[in-house]
Write a structure and sequence with these properties.
The protein is mostly helical and about 70 residues long. Helices cover about 55% and strands about 0% of the residues.
Length: about 70
Amino acid sequence: MEELMEILEEICPDVDFNQEKALVDDKILSSFDILSIISEISDAFEITLTPAEIIPVNFNSAEALWNMICRLKG
């Protein structure tokens, strides 16, 4: 989780990823931010995200992202 938080804070340093629970729903993350996150977590965690995983519920919080990463890593 620490590595994920570092990635998120590097991409969006002004966002409090510990508190925010509606990153997509509240339009805190832009589409470019989401693409950057996908690229960075794919490389860092050696996972492949399919279109089925690229849905708002998986990107609304750091916790949701972490859960998705853990699920994809198996």
